[in-house]
């Protein structure tokens, strides 16, 4: 049995708490937040002790796993506080406040013998797991290109994001660093390393500080290209526009694989006139964010911790995702394609 502490009880922590509470083989022993009302509410709902001061957890209920659901300025301090040989830390994205800080923290965790995982959950969405299985099956053959059109429709007007995640309005870097990063990770996971990046970004809603629309083109090592086309003001056909956040198309020698807004996959063989459904075999929980991707990531971490299977989303691996996002901002500023080292 692994003891777990959750630090940070903002909007998104609800999905983490529900997932940990339902996960076999673990015990939620502590929650922490500077907001005592949040601490009291979470403590009562999940029958767990709450701490306004996260450091107190180290003395009272030292956990095996710490889930940091906090913003980037808090990452370095909290990670350093909880470093311990054999402990697992899960850190929310965006990871740290700069590439240099992320690299330093990654090295410190490795030196301390602490496993540091980044909570990048889109690759754990059930439809993306099925896409991976489909590509690995060989039915697609060689892949020519992929495109994800992000259209959540939640970014309009002066109150955009305020009801759910108001900090979005103040982020100087928004679309790529907060949102496109999910698909950067997915495409890198599906298609391999990225060799160069081109980005054209813009701001449509004057009520926010950062960019909320734009195109990001990534060339992968074999010449295949993936495209993130994001616009947070537009929507797409879906019962819940936030379920998939958009639609995807992957084209290759064997045909075209598409993801619709309800999380359903379809394949059209090259030359055919009709699409055929591709069953999503992973469990889908449409009452939770992204089909239950938070719980799926947590289940993966627990399984790896108990069986010795490889971890996905290690901080070391995630540094490449950060480099790609940095290259996107450099490309947009300099109006050119940027080659990655």
Structure characterization notes:
- By secondary structure, the chain is of the alpha/beta class.
- It folds into two domains: 2-119, NAD(P)-binding Rossmann-like Domain (Rossmann fold, 3-Layer(aba) Sandwich), CATH 3.40.50.720; 123-283 and 319-339, Dihydrodipicolinate Reductase, domain 2, CATH 3.30.360.
- The protein has helices at residues 13-22, 36-46, 55-60, 75-82, 99-112, 126-137, 175-191, 293-307, 315-334; strands at 2-7, 26-32, 49-51, 65-68, 88-92, 115-119, 143-150, 194-202, 213-220, 225-231, 246-252, 255-259, 265-269, 276-278, 338-339.
- α1 (13-22) packs across α8, α5 (99-112) packs antiparallel against α9 and α7 (175-191) packs across α9.
- The longest helix is centred in the C-terminal third of the chain and has 20 residues, at 315-334.
- The radius of gyration is 20 Å and the shape is globular.
- It starts with a strand and ends with a strand.
- The mean pLDDT is 96.
The SSE order reads EHEHEHEHEHEHEHEEEEEEEHHE
Approximate shape:
globular
Identify the CATH architecture of the largest domain. 2-Layer Sandwich
pLDDT average, as an integer? 96
N- to C-terminal separation? 42 Å
Number of domains: 2
- By oligomeric state, this entry counts as single chain
Percent of residues in beta strands? 15-25%
CATH overall fold name of the largest domain? Dihydrodipicolinate Reductase, domain 2
* Gyration radius from CA atoms, angstroms: 20 Å
Biggest sheet: strand arrangement: 14-13-12-11-7-10-9-8-15
Please mark out the parts with pLDDT under 50 across 5 or more consecutive residues, or reply none. Answer: none
CATH class of the largest domain: Alpha Beta
CATH superfamily of the largest domain: Dihydrodipicolinate Reductase, domain 2
- Give a short account of the largest sheet: 9 strands, mixed
Helix content: 25-40%
Number of helices, counting only DSSP H or I runs of 4 residues or more: 9
Strand element count: 15
Helix-and-strand structural type: alpha/beta
